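4.2 Preliminary Data

To establish feasibility before requesting continued support, the project team ran the inverse folding procedure on a target of 88 residues. The structure was first converted into the token representation described in Section 3, and no sequence information of any kind was made available to the design step. The complete token record follows.
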């Protein structure tokens, strides 16, 4: 039972992490903010990235909030996996 929850948790965190990575790299490939895929990625990731951006200023022209978000997601996933393992 714990394995099912752990795999589902891993899948959800992996998909959300992929959305953050795609949102960070697609503009470098010329995909504009009004492209349907970018609109979807922005709507999915902005609730996490916007508060981080308020506390982490850009350095030069680089926004490090996606990197911090990925690290926080990784830590949260580890914490939840440990909690699931302890409960089951």
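Position-by-position output of the design step:
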């Amino acid at each position: 039972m714990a394995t099912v929850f752990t795999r589902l948790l891993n899948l959800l965190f992996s998909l959300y992490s992929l959305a953050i990575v795609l949102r960070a790299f697609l503009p470098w490939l010329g995909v504009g903010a009004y492209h349907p895929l970018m609109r979807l990625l922005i709507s999915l990731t902005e609730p996490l990235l916007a508060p981080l951006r308020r506390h982490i200023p850009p350095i030069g022209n680089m926004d490090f909030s996606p990197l911090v978000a990925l690290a926080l997601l990784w830590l949260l996933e580890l914490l939840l996996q440990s909690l699931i393992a302890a409960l089951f």
